[in-house]
Design goal:
mainly alpha; globular
């Protein structure tokens, strides 16, 4: 069980220092490092993410760095999508088919997360310059509608894989709201993540795919890891840390994706 706390400490530190990691690191560690079934790894990580990020949201809320209008728009799409996806997952039940589906979706989500981490600055610059007409239309007329649709996509992805509410959600917000203060987008993304990971985690608990003992030990390591990471992060070279973590995610994601595809044949 101490191994779970160590994993929580490492992932918590990475999240605190760079904002990258969370489910995209924790879930693969549980599956590949500890041999946990994908469905249990995802269900446990969802509740872990909701609880560990709740404190950060409280801080952002007190500092006024959460745009609740954006959170509301995302939630209009994500909450129904989470509930529908949980209904779909419950139809699968505790079967090998569910674990194979989770592994495949998780692998793709990790690769997308890695690319989003590497290309974040370029994506923001692309959105701000509005060189293409569709971006101007998106920012002036389609912002609300696409925020709701994006929320739905994120909700479904998070419910299946536990990945998507962090880096992927942030990249989408950067594309949709390039002129918003970055701190408000981070706070809004976190608040939305806490909501949907909590709902999805409770849904997985109803399916029986949450290991509560493991959850406690993960949190024992994660909370001090996040605390130290946030305080040491400003001293660490973020320009080097992010590519390093992104590279690790890319290796893990492509490796898992290869295995998931091979398992289909």
């Amino acid at each position: 069980m101490l191994g779970y706390s160590l994993a929580g400490l490492i992932v918590g530190f990475a999240v605190g220092a760079t904002g990258v990691g969370g489910g995209s690191l924790m879930t693969p560690i549980l599956i590949l490092g500890f041999g946990i079934a994908p469905s249990v790894a995802v269900g446990t990580d969802l509740l872990y993410a909701s609880l560990s990020k709740g404190f950060a949201v409280a801080l952002h809320g007190r500092n006024g760095s959460v745009d609740w209008r954006i959170v509301g728009r995302l939630s209009l799409g994500s909450v129904p999508a989470v509930l529908l996806t949980l209904f779909f997952i419950h139809g699968y039940g505790k079967t090998g088919d569910l674990d194979r589906l989770i592994t495949l979706v998780l692998s793709v989500a990790i690769v997308v997360t890695a690319l989003g981490t590497l290309l974040r600055a370029r994506i923001l610059a692309f959105a701000r310059h509005e060189r293409f007409g569709f971006l101007r239309v998106l920012h002036r007329r389609g912002q609300r509608a696409f925020t709701v649709l994006s929320g739905a996509a994120i909700g479904a992805l998070v419910t299946v894989s536990s990945v998507g509410a962090g880096v992927i959600g942030m990249v989408i917000l950067l594309l949709l709201y390039p002129r918003h203060a970055a701190i408000k987008l981070v706070g809004s993304d976190l608040a939305h993540a806490v909501l949907i990971t909590g709902i999805a985690g409770l849904g997985h608990a109803g399916l029986g795919t949450v290991d509560y003992k493991m959850l406690v030990f993960l949190l024992i390591g994660a909370l001090p890891g996040i605390w130290f990471g946030t305080r040491l992060g400003f001293r660490l070279p973020d320009a080097r840390l992010r590519p390093l973590i992104a590279g690790l995610l890319l290796i893990v994601g492509t490796g898992m994706l290869g295995k998931a595809i091979a398992a289909q044949f």
